[in-house]
């Protein structure tokens, strides 16, 4: 259990969205809209290897071309791309990532460990912390951060909510918004390959 680099995960000054898209209904499109809709004050850098413009602004083709190391990277690309992306992010200087992608329990295409284990092995030399994979993401309303594909934003408040289940997260967010209940943090853990309940509760206890 460790809170190392969780401050970067939950209070980033800049965000890169890898897999940002203009395709209506796609994961990359929903997350980009959420990032820009809630008032986050830091730069948001869309990464798309095929397009130089995404969401009405510039996009970058890869991690290496970003103007600087993002505090937080959100990954919503196919599972097999995740380990190499984590390596690139670690080399760039990023120390936290949210992996929304599912399917990392499958074996690596080259054989050997699962994609999830390859992801963790890629993160370890850089002390890069990972929320997920296979999660909805995280919302920190106090800083206007909606790093998720949740169908809406959370209201600001002093209650933190942490769950493994994406379905429960979505239902709770709808329920809370209908009753005017706000949150300091709203966190979906997904598969908890790295950051788990103990890490998050330890971090939140010091908030």
> What's the overall geometry?
globular
Q: What is the string of SSEs from the N terminus onward? A: HEHEEEEHEHEEEEHEH
Radius of gyration (CA) equals 16 Å
CATH uppermost class? Alpha Beta
Number of domains: 1
Average pLDDT level: 96
DSSP summary, beta strand count = 11
Oligomer: single chain
The CATH architecture name reads 3-Layer(aba) Sandwich
Instruction: Give the strand order of the largest sheet, numbering strands 1, 2, ... along the chain.
Output: 2-1-5-6-7
For the termini, the CA-CA separation is: 17 Å
Question: Which blocks of ≥5 consecutive residues have pLDDT under 50?
Answer: none
Most strands sheet: 5 strands, parallel
Structural class: alpha/beta
How is the CATH topology named? Rossmann fold
Counting DSSP H or I runs of 4 or more residues, the number of helices is 6
Query: Helix proportion of residues, in percent?
Result: 25-40%
């Amino acid at each position: 259990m460790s809170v190392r680099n969780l401050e970067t995960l939950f209070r980033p000054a800049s965000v890169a969205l890898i897999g940002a898209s203009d395709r209506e209904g796609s994961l990359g499109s929903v997350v980009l809209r959420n990032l820009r809709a809630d008032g986050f004050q830091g730069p948001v850098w869309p990464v798309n290897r095929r397009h130089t413009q995404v969401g009405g602004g510039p996009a970058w083709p890869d991690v290496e071309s970003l103007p600087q190391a993002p505090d937080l990277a959100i990954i919503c690309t196919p599972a097999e791309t995740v380990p190499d992306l984590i390596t690139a992010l670690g080399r760039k200087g990023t120390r936290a990532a949210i992996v929304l992608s599912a399917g990392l329990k499958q074996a690596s295409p080259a054989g050997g460990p699962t994609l999830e284990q390859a992801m963790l092995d890629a993160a370890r030399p850089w002390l890069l912390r990972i929320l997920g994979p296979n999660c909805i993401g995280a919302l920190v309303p106090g800083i206007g951060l909606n790093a998720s594909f949740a169908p809406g934003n959370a209201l600001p408040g002093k209650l933190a909510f942490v769950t493994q289940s994406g379905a429960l997260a979505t239902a709770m967010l709808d329920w809370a918004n209908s009753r005017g209940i706000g949150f300091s943090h709203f966190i979906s853990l997904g598969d908890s390959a790295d950051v788990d309940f103990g890490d998050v509760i330890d971090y939140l206890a010091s908030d």
